[in-house]
Structure formats: C-alpha cells, structure tokens
Amino acid sequence: MESQRKYPKYFSFEFFPPKNEAGEEKLRNTRETLAQLNPCLFSVTFGAGGSTRERTFDTVTEIKQQSHIDVAPHLSCISSTVEGIREILNRYIDQGIRYLVALRGDIPSGMGSPGEFHYANQLVEFIRKETGDHFHIEVAAYPEFHPQAPDAGTDLNNFKRKVEAGADGAMTQYFYNPDAYFRFVESCEKMGLDLPIVPGIMPITNFTQLARFSDICGAEIPRWIRKRLEAYGEDMESLRRFGVEVTTKLCRDLLEGGAPGLHFYTLNNAEPTVEIWNNLGIVSETRV
To answer: Residue 222 domain-assigned?
Structure first.
C-alpha cells in the first residue's frame, strides 16, 4: 500500500443523469448539498449502450456551469463509434471539461456487437491520440475482479493495459471487504503499476436494491452483513443505521490503511454520504 500513501487525498461523488424534471430537481439539491463538502470531483454515468448520452452531456454541462466542483463524464465503449467519441470529446473540450472516466461499459441484453471499441484500453488509447494530455482519465478497477474475467490474472492484465494506455487514476467497483482492496493494490504494485487507486463506496440504504446491483456487478456482500440486512426486513431506519455504521468503518479502515481517497456511489442521494463523511471527520480541499 506504500504506492498509495504518497498521493493527496481525493474524494469524489458519482451521479446518474435524471430521467425527468423531478429527478433533475432532486439531483440539483443533492449536488448543492454535496458541494458543501468540497470534493475534488463529481462524476456522471453513461447508460448501458450509450442510452443516456445526451442526458449525460446535459447533466455535465449544467454541473460545469453552476458548480465550482470539477466534473467528469463517463464514456463507454459499448455502441460507440470512432466518429461519435471524437464528436463528444470535442463537445466536452468546448465546455471546458478536463476530466473523463473511460469504461468498457455494460452490454445491453440482445446486443450482438459492442461497437468499434471493444475494450476500455482501446478507448483510453484513442482519447490520448485525439486529445493528448488535455484530459485527466480515470478508469475502473475491480478488487474482487470483473464478473466476466476468467481468472484473477487475466483481470489484472486487463487493468494493466488500461494503465499503460494512458490512465491517470482508477476508481474501483464498490466492495465491503477491505482486504480485497489491499490485496488488489499489492498485486498492482508487484506489476509495477503506479497510479492512485481510489476505493468505490456504496452506502447501504436498501437491501433489495443492493443485492440486485451486487449480483450484476459481482460485488460480494459478506454473509454477516447480508444476514443482518435480511433480518431488518421492513425496518428501514434500523437498516439505514446499520448500513451507515458498516460503511463508515469500511471507509475508516481504508483510509487508515493508506487508500488515497474515496469515491462515493451516491445514487443521487446526499444524506447517507453526508452522514458517513461527518462520521469520518473528513476535511477536503478541492484541487487547483
């Protein structure tokens, strides 16, 4: 973990593009609340198969115009063409965007071909070829390994290709076992990879939703956590309190262990993240 301790602490919050006016208003309120915590970055997701491309762009543009926080749009390989990616890169450059999250993305059910970019390292290579060092590029990392990876070694080599293609940093899939993160970083160090790897944090507020997400993305919910969450049933307040307690401890263990920051998957809700943040006593300074 020594490679991670040298980096300044980096805190970021992830949003998804809202579908309607009510969602837009909720996200504005969430964003304004979280902006008071002075994070380094807001990021905005890109729907499966590019399904939210314009909503992602509109959300990023609004945040850029109305917030003092830097914003990083997600870009996905799936359904993307060379010309389409070139166009959106130029649009982001025109808007003054300096940060990107480059991903392979999820393949929608029934889709035969993923598009002209098959893997995230190809997307990173293209962005670097087209724009040089204009963008700070984040990529995904999987401490518990990508659900489609045949084995751990293959997944680590895939991550290495993204780094060698020009990634500046990585944000991980969420997890609840800190040892998975620490071992992943140690494996990266043995491969000579030297970049900040920021843990992804999913606050626990709804067990059914969390179990569904975790089944899709391959994130393990430890048995003791799962059983406690199941036992709360419809007692959502007790579940919420337990979720905040568990996630706070996870974050504290990660930061004390040398993690260079935290990336919160907010699901467009401010309250759980704010409560965890306050429990940790974080003081953040945005980057210049």
So the answer is: no
Q: What local confidence, expressed as pLDDT, does residue 149 receive?
A: 80
- The residue written with tokens 């590029």 in the block is 137
**Could you say which of 14, 125, 138, 144 is catalytic?**
14
What is the residue range of 83's domain? 2-206+240-280
Report helix, strand and coil shares of the chain as percent, to nearest 5.
50, 15, 35
Across the chain, mean pLDDT equals 91
**Domain-embedded: residue 286:** no
DSSP 8-state assignment for residue 229: H
Position 110 scores a pLDDT of 53
Q: How confident is the model at residue 288 (pLDDT cuts 50, 70, 90)?
A: very low
Judge whether 258 lies within some domain. yes
Examine the residue annotation and report whether 21 is marked as an active-site residue of this protein: no
Beta-sheet pairing, 169-174 with 136-141? parallel
- One-letter amino acid for residue 153 of the chain: G
Could you give the number of structural domains in the chain? 1
Please report the pLDDT score of residue 88 as a whole number: 93
Residue 229 lies in a domain: no
What CATH number is given to the structural domain containing 177? 3.20.20.220
Give burial (CB, 10 Å; 0-12/13-18/19+) of 97.
Answer: buried
pTM, full prediction: 0.93
Give the integer Cα–Cα distance in Å for 32 and 114. 36
